[in-house]
Amino acid sequence: MATKVILDCDPGIDDALAIAFAYGHPGIQLVGITTVAGNVGLDRTTANALAVCDFIGARVPVIEGCATPLVRPALDARKVHGESGLGGAVLPVPMSRRAEGHAVDFIVSTVLDAPGEITLVATGPLTNIALAVRREPRLVRSVRDFVIMGGSSGRGNTTPAAEYNMWADPEAAAAVFGAGWTVTMLGLDVTLRSGASAAVLERMSGMGALGHELLLPALGGYRSSAVGGGQPVHDVCAVVHVAEPGLFGFVPALVSVETAGRLTSGMTVTDFEADDGNARVAMTIDTSRFWELTLGTYASLAAAMAEITRSPVPPTG
Ligand code: BDR
Ligand code: CA
User: Fold this and answer.
1) Strand 28-35 relative to strand 3-9, pairing
2) If 175 and its partner were Cys, which of 130, 165, 285, 305 is the partner (CB 3.0–4.6 Å)?
3) Average pLDDT of adjacent 10-residue blocks, the chain of 317 residues
4) What pTM was computed for the model?
């Protein structure tokens, strides 16, 4: 049976690619997409989520969340993801509208209505999740799993110490890691090994509209580079892990988020020796199997999109 997933995200190039993967993989049932300010402002992350869903044919509710971090001013990563947040991809203006309500309410009610069934995946700053768990502490016992792309047990990418999602809202990240659940953390040191090689891009170029209008132009405008070259698809790692848990190797750890450090704000201080852990931290990735699975999923999605284009719904009336 497919795993039910709520994807809390800030599209964002790699968030957009994560949406496409989550929708396209048969092992995931995407029950909702919640948006948060992060790579770009909230209006844009919501519009981008809607545009990606419309483009790939996903009828998934998109619910808007927080426009600002818990206590700090909102910053963004337009320098990395481009003004629109989708790099060089220019998708049609979405026809779909966001669903009524607030992301925090949606997360709380959806998870509590189906205890043990929903995997919560966060690929942006953790503002919505922090507020959800503060509002309803039973969330920590009611989720099936909680998976994030964020943090690092090594280097940062926004400062030498901090990864972007943690740096953007460290108080939220600290609250989330301290909430009493086990966080499955796919951090930067591992996701930086998910670079899209020339061979990966070549395969994408055979994927029709999905490749030529979303994947390739988005990655082409991504001002970020992976260890070993290519653009890293950080956020895709989190949803791939849900679909195929064996591709990453994890080590238990106690992760504490620095909120006071002048040079280290947002750093995820990772203690692998602690007795009481709060996280499973990814340390390895099988990059070739990762890309086989990801490209296979995109190819199936591309074929489904082409089929819809070939047999449009006949006009009514
Ligand atoms: C993370 O930061 C964002 O810019 C990306 O979308 C990803 O979630 C990588 O550090
Ligand atoms: Ca993101």
Assistant:
1) parallel
2) 130
3) 98 98 98 98 98 98 98 96 97 97 98 98 99 98 98 96 98 98 98 97 98 98 92 98 98 98 97 96 98 98 93 63
4) 0.97
